Write the structure tokens for this entry.
Amino acid sequence: MSVSYLDAINAALNEEMRRDPSVFIIGEDVGVMGGAFGVTKGLYEEFGPDRVIDSPLAEGIIVSSSIGAAMAGMRPVPEIQFVDFITPAMDAITQQAAKLRYRSAGAQTCPLTLRVCYGGGTGGGMYHSQTNTTWFAHEPGLIVVAPATPTDAKGMLKASIRQDDPVIYFEHKKLYRLPAIKEDVPESADFLSDLFHCAVRRPGKDATIVTYGFMLQPSLQAAEKIAEETGASIEVIDLRVLNPLDHETILNSIAKTGRLCIVQEDHRTLGIGSEIAATVAELAFDCLDAPILRVAAPDVPAIPAAEPLEQFYMPDLPKIMTAMRQLLQY
Amino acid sequence: MATKVKEPAAPAAAPKSAANGRPNSENPLISDDKLKQIYSTMVKCRLLEERARTLKKQARFKGNYYAAVGQEAVAVGAGIDLRPEDTVAPSHRDFILNFIKGVPLEIMFSQLYGRVTSPDKGRSSPAHCGYAPLNIITPASTIAAQLNIGTGVALANQMKKNDNVVVALSGEGSTSLGFWHEALNFAGVRNLPIVYICQNNLWAESVSVKLQTRVDDISLKATGYGFPGITVDGNDAVAMYRVAQEAIARARSGGGPTLIEAKTYRWYGHSEIDPAKYRSAEEVEEWKAKDPNAAMERYLTGKKLLSADWKQQIIDSFNKELDAAVEYAEKQPQAQPIECLDHLYSFDVRSRELDRKTCTPQY
């Protein structure tokens, strides 16, 4: 059966809550309403108000109460409805969740999975569209994941909930119901995806695209188009995990192709692409046949709402095509 | 709902049958043994902190220390009857809660000295002692964060349907933060088993309480969260004990949270490098005259529960314990440099950091 990204997340939550009574959900509108996008639909009815908690409108306590509950043995799955609203929880995430294990030398830990809805391209405007992945990927102590397929959405969420570390789980709102990515998803209650490695979504030998989240879609389309136009074969790597980065898969690809383009929805400066480019420059300098390119959002504060402005902002197929032609012609 | 308990409470002597020293529903009064235990613990807390200050001044350990000298009645009254499975969410100034809850002195001094035998193996600052076996949350320096994490522990206790409570401590400065509001509001909404203790010592580093809040009694704020708030003379150990135990008992039996504002005073600066020149000498002297330990001593003397010999015995024997703990801590090694990379995740990252292999073309 073909499953959407949203239904895959919902199934993962349901399965983990059935499996482990210490798993609970907390967030704004997650209960009675079933989530702003319907991701937690049906869970309140099945598990009740004590395990699917409609929280006060306060992101700080959503995350910090989850930290305390996790420390006391629970497995919280808090939700931030839009990543644009995550800033009141930044102390909880960066100073507490990321550092609790370290500052207690492993004696106190907070295994929690913070689900965060992110991403633009929906006309949501400045505060319903952001991609702040870098803020979290920069923070040692957090595992940061961004699944791009329904199979990963399910398997990585289940694995995150079982992981003994705080995980920030980025889910892109444009992927939720995207028909093109619906796929068969393993139904086994014990199906888990790897939380530590990139996935090579399309093998190639002439150049490498590294991307994540929704940007996997235009990246794969660009690889297909380039192959049709020029015959060049592009390897497309889906990062999946933004921290800690899987350097090996990326470096092995560059050793093979010699050319790298990073595609990210986050804006350019100090984005995930900066770290990947620096790592490749440090560790695979001899492999490079061309300057590393980045297709990223411009350095403006957030995504503007009006269509032409949003279009200018969002990386897309034409922008990736331009970069790839430049990369291959160098 | 805010009420005041400003006058020193005058409990009658408990009957001899209260041998375990714990008040209960049949006997709500405080036993003589409990009064003596409160006093001796206060004396020990002060000796402990004065020793820590001396060691800091002698540069025997690095970093800073945040003494709660002058506030002992609050910590002892709130912490003395906690069970091991109860959680304490301490601020930077609550080092002595570790002692009150039963953390061995060797471990506490290892913390001051940043040795491998400290609970955090030398990671945090000297005064930031947490201790997982007794459910003391390892403090962070970000003010009020411990209240929010403690609130989450209370949520877990409620979900697990046990009768454990959380005592979350902070100062009056913390009440200005959004975190503080989020924690108390949430605890009220969920009726969580937690007691918030605001140690109003009038100064948040150099800033007067008059610049933190317009209200005279911070306990008033509890009204806005729908649970009881009470202001207590934080230098009156008996009053503090009674108020704290009532709140703890209410939390334990499902009655929900309480905010206790304990009005008190820190005798010294914010930290050992703060001469506290922002306060007048008169104010400091006025509060030193309200020394909680001396007040408790007078109270016990009046009840014929204190002799000079007994007091001296407490001091002498505890000083020996402190000597031994200091000697122990000073002999312990510091962490190996490479341990900087440990305890980041549930998996090891040493090789990731150390074995960065360069890559050569494969085409």
Summary: Residues 5-19 of chain A form the longest helix (15 residues). Chain A touches chain B through 58 residues (CB under 8 Å). DSSP finds twelve helices and 14 strands in chain A. The CA atoms of residues 259 and 281 of chain A lie 12 Å apart.
